[in-house]
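User: Modeling request: complex.
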Amino acid sequence: MKLSKPLVEVRNLKKYFPVRKWLFRVVGYVKAVDGVDLDVRVKSTHGLIGESGCGKTTLGRTIVRLMEPTDGKVFFDGIEIMGLNKKELRELRKNMRIVFQDPLSSLDPRMCVRDQIVEGVRTHVRASGEEIDEEILRLLKLVGLKEEHMWRYPHELSGGQNQRVAIARAITLNPKFVVLDEPTSALDVSVQAQILELLKDLQDKFNLSYLFISHDLSVVGYISDDISVMYVGNIVEVIDADRIWEEALHPYTQCLLSAVPIAELDVKKEEKIELKGEVPSPVNPPPGCRFHPRCPYVMDVCKTRKPELVEVEHKHLVACHKAV
Amino acid sequence: MNRLSDLLSVRNLMLHFVTYYGVVKALDGVSFDVRREDVFGLVGETGCGKTVTSLTILKLLPENAMIVGGEIIFKGENLLDKSEEEMRDIRGGKISMIFQDPSTSLNPLFTVKDQLVRVLLTHQKINKEEAYRRGINLLRSVGLPDPERLMGFYPFELSGGMQQRVMIAIAISSNPDLLIADEPTSNLDVTIQAQILDLIKRCREETEASVLFITHDFGIVTEICNRVGVMYAGTMAEIAPLRELLTDPLHPYTKGLLASIPTPGKRGERLHMIRGMVPELIKPPSGCRFHPRCPSVMDVCRMKSPPTVKIGEEHLVTCHLYETGA
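Assistant: Request completed. Predicted assembly structure:
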């Protein structure tokens, strides 16, 4: 069996944001991430897909502990990272990096490309200026930039080039795991293709594992090995990317699949399932299954009991009363 | 040479922007036709001039824009000759537009009722009560629940999808002949996007308007359009019926673009990459604007702008490769 063991294991992760009234009184919680389990296998890409506001970005940031979770555990290579102190965490950060959605806002506008990357290197290793320059040149070449770009500022580069800089910054110090938070959604298709190919090449070269967060099913379906579908703070389905188009079981996944416009003629699409209504607020999520007010197959049990993620087949988990 | 079936015909449109850094040659001889009951898709990447084309049709250009040449024939009349007053009747009357971001194109200070009723009063000879009644019907027809209550809402009280529905209600309020939709779904989630696309399709069938649909997403084009024009750096690279464009693209740019879209069928394959970057339009490349990135570039491409060649019934391609005798 070529099932590689997970590099990152997320167990029952929760992140609630308090809703305050009059500055202090907490009147409720935004349950952005509400009990999520997720595994990212070594040298694989785990796609996380969901609509805006479903908590996918919060989940990504909580996993690398850019946000403190409300509850739950995250194991990285067997180490529980939620219990680490600052110093240990900083040591571990070498191995866990993140690339954000909009490169123009995640890069410092007042730093040239070299300084953006150097900052990361300096935090973790001691090296002379020459060594650093050499290393940066190597990184820039890896992501398809040239020496001349070293002294440019973000406003002098295009969106695609800026995203390359952000990727270069993420892969300094040879990380094992990179969270990619919508890395291509601000880019044009032709540039998106370049960045996706770059990410695949880097994965092969350095045995990276990715958590690829996106709202675009065609991109996630193209690049991922496994896909998790998220809806209002919960994972509703985990499935092999090869099988998602044919074998997805959760009604929400099926709705998503039927809603995605695909640039291919005569794609065998299931009957279009019109999804009624809008995503519910995570402050007051519906009781029972969170999808039930919009679900075309809703049953009585859905309104009262929350479905658990259950393995229906090998490597295929679904949280739905009807599918199980 | 206008065929009767053409509702809108843009001929050789040239547009420059005068900026501090120089003259940006934003459109360089763009031609296309939108026929009656067409959904014509205008596709291209950021900065290729698709939005500018639509703004030129409505003459909503900023002050530093200069229309250098060309004509825009709408129902037999050249819009470029129209006075500002005549244009005001056409905008929102015969041609209406759905903008990209409804949260910025609806006025945040006015309620839905104010904005919807005002458009109705401007373009139709009806009194306020009648306008209100029609407004309610319009909101209902775009699938908004409880329209009486919604009338009193401000835009911020609506979700993105609902705002876009209000925009569509305003746009179809005067039964326009042409509806220009400029990336109407790019800020919306896929499930909401599917709803809005269905709504636009339905509105088109009911009002018998033609649609000029501007987008960067070939998936949406496949979903909604019947003819497509592909733009590159201010030029029209290729125009073809949807099916023909997807199965048999001719222009090297269209080929590259289609091959670079990730689709479920391409899993495991490498995506095609168009080398290089979109050129600066202050100093566009000589000859064909695509030549520095073109895989099948020839000497002539560097020197001469390519001619538009007609292949088959309705397939137009602007490329030296298809010149007769080449």
